[in-house]
Amino acid sequence: MRETDVVIIGGGHNGLVCAFYLARTGLKVTVLERREVVGGAAVTEEFHPGFRNSTASYTVSLLNPKVIREMDLGRHGLKVVERRMSNFLPLNGRDYLCVGGGRTKQEVAKFSAPDAERLDAYGERLDRIADVLRELVLATPPNVVEGSFVDAIPELLKSVSIGNKLSKLDTTGRRDLLALFSQSAGDWLDGWFESDPIKAAYGFDGVVGAFASPYTPGTAYVLLHHVFGEVNGNKGAWGHAIGGMGAITQAMARACAEQGVEIVTGQGVREVLVKQGRAVGVATEAGDVIMADRVVSNIHPRLLFQKLVDPALLPADFNERMQRYRSGSGTFRMNVALSELPKFACHPDAGDHLTAGIIIAPSLAYMERAYIDARLTGWSKQPIVEMLIPSTLDDTLAPPGQHVASLFCQHVQPELSDGRSWDQHRDEVADLMIDTVDAMAPGFKASVVGRLALTPLDLERRFGLVGGDIFHGQLTLDQLFSARPTLGHGAYRAPIPGLYLCGSGTHPGGGVTGAPGHNAAREILRDGKR
Ligand SMILES: Cc1cc2nc3c(=O)[nH]c(=O)nc-3n(C[C@H](O)[C@H](O)[C@H](O)COP(=O)(O)OP(=O)(O)OC[C@H]3O[C@@H](n4cnc5c(N)ncnc54)[C@H](O)[C@@H]3O)c2cc1C
Q: How far is the CA of 470 from the centre of ligand 1 (A)?
């Protein structure tokens, strides 16, 4: 039996961020990670001899600047570079749309002059809402409390402070905010633009990680969730961490080590130990016991409350809510090793477009069909594929002259219907994804010399993402802000005193942000002072 001040279950990036902030105050912190490597879904691994790539998350923008600064991630080796172009959409064998790199207006004008004219206003209006969201990212949501008015006072004060932030918006801004929180991405974009390609480019963000059509209400928020980030001060931009996403978490691990955090890999936690109603430590899968004043969970809320905590210790209504907590993405994730760069039929030359997020999905209607097909049959026969070729920006990932690409593919059922298992269909669907790219870039298939394919089931097994949910639970209104993971526990505290949550299943949700870890540490320290 060992003792520590704080034990953190899971060494994902949020667990590391939380550990850093706690250890910085002098607390003795131990992080227990089940895998042999820290980083969770932000990790770089070799998937084919000589070829390394980010295994799950693959592009950076949402990582909070305050976290980067305070953990001094630059000094610990993190370097993020911007893509030279944001997005490239091959539409068919002839046409394409480029977004970013100073070309968006002239590119959109190829399809619609009025759409090109509306771009600036769209960007400004979305930015104003994203700015409000940015201010809320590091705030603890007001918690819904039962009991006396005195208990409610601090939460009311938080609500007032949030109300003040929202009151900075004029009526147009408030209307936009309401639309973005309630509408579908499709309805929102149809209100702005008439041509398909730009709606597809922006609408892709509305379905990333969601098992949803772009016309499903609530997807406008998913779109908004993807624009509140920045790269090196450039708002809304997406970039690449040299060395892949694992470079972020390796830098975090170094920052933690400097503060004296003990990180133990290959140590899964089997149980949260509770004594007289209070969390007092954990038991590991290997049978070790680590006693701690506070237990913090970086893992998916359903894994914590349904596997590691005895349900008899939790209120019945809380168990029921956790049972209903929706978790599942329509995501199929691949890495491919390439002998050469792809040549798109519509844009065969090499160029900045190969550094972009290459989106194969020419319209919102295509995305909707992909969702409906997957919903009905298991996976879409004409899937949405975003391909990134990070080796165009980073020569540490592949042997000279060769490349690696991330394929982020949708839609597939999180859990296959009709009793089928993803274990039986992995290769078939992986072939389909490669064929989908090959249809736009003939020769791509022949250039693939190695591959890794992760179905939703694989994402769950490897990373503990229930239903392959890339965000630790869907980003729907009933699972956001004060209601993440559930109303009454939206402030990083579990129903058991001494047990806290610091992962993506808390506000502000998924993405490599560091925000849940940062905010949870603040709440834990506040309780310590009390
Ligand atoms: C395919 C995919 C693509 C994505 N793309 C992007 C992207 O491009 N950009 C972006 O910003 N975000 C992206 N995301 C989302 C982002 O990666 C996640 O939201 C984020 O990494 C989650 O971080 P976390 O620290 O909250 O949890 P996790 O990274 O899930 O970490 C939890 C950790 O807990 C460990 N664990 C689980 N059970 C136990 C146990 N019993 N004992 C000990 N340890 C345990 C796990 O092994 C894991 O290391 C993507 C996610 C996926 C899956």
A: 7
